[in-house]
Design a protein that fits this description.
The protein is of the alpha/beta class. It has a domain of 112 residues: Trna Endonuclease, Chain: A, domain 1, CATH 3.40.1350. It is built from 3 helices and 6 strands; from the N terminus they run H-E-E-E-H-E-H-E-E. Strands 1-2-3-4-5-6 form a 6-stranded mixed sheet. The relative contact order is 0.09.
């Protein structure tokens, strides 16, 4: 029986080997370049993230500074408003009794900064100016520039005053302002309060003939 010869695959030529080596080297080089590009992009991303963090920190610090300045401005504005209020009281109080008496009242006593207490004796509210005679009282709230909310607050203040006044006198209210818009003045009249407006170095109380002050 004849012996069968083993068949081997043909050997690669030197040219084919060099081609394979060149291809492997090219692939390795491309892979290295891709890895370098990936590293570069990661570094750029990291740099951008650091820059974003820095800007966010600057924004936070800027917001803190803005908040601080706003608080400081609010504080100064509040102090200025209080000074305007004090000035308005000094302008209103000396003439207020004569102005109301010219309307037919007979007030003899004018007091300022009257404290209203609650049932437990604590501070509930404060009346800027209070005019009194035997059976009638007018509580005046003084603002540099009254707003509608100030009138609403004075309504609550009147209710507290009436609850504390055990003599059950006739109680009226008034709003005084150095600067008073037409809308606010109409709202004052609508709620039955006397509008007291600054005029030079004195005050005026102008009400329509149909005006009826609210009795609390």
């Amino acid at each position: 029986m004849a012996e069968t010869a083993m068949q081997y695959p043909p050997s690669a030529t030197p040219e084919e080997v060099w081609a394979l080596l060149r291809e492997a080297a090219a692939i390795q080089k491309e892979t290295k370049l891709q890895m370098q590009e990936t590293d570069r992009r990661m570094q750029e991303t990291d740099r951008q993230m650091q820059e974003t963090d820095r800007r966010m920190q600057e924004l936070v610090e800027s917001q803190k500074e803005t908040d601080r300045r706003m608080k400081e401005t609010d504080k100064k504005f509040g102090e200025l408003s209080n000074r305007f209020g004090e000035l308005a009281e000094h302008l209103v109080a000396p003439n207020i009794k004569e102005k109301f008496n010219a309307l037919g009242f007979t007030f003899k006593k004018v007091s300022q900064n009257i404290q209203i207490t609650n049932d437990s004796g604590g501070h509930a509210a404060e009346i800027d100016i209070l005019l009194e005679n035997g059976d009638t009282v007018i509580a005046v709230e003084v603002k540099a520039k009254p707003k509608q909310s100030d009138i609403d607050d004075h309504i609550k203040r009147m209710e507290l005053l009436c609850a504390e006044d055990h003599r059950k006198r006739i109680v009226h209210g008034a709003i005084a302002g150095a600067i008073m818009s037409k809308e606010v003045r109409n709202y004052i009249l609508k709620n039955g309060f006397y509008p007291i407006e600054q005029s030079g170095d004195t005050v005026t109380i102008n009400v329509p003939k149909s005006f009826k002050p609210r009795r609390w």
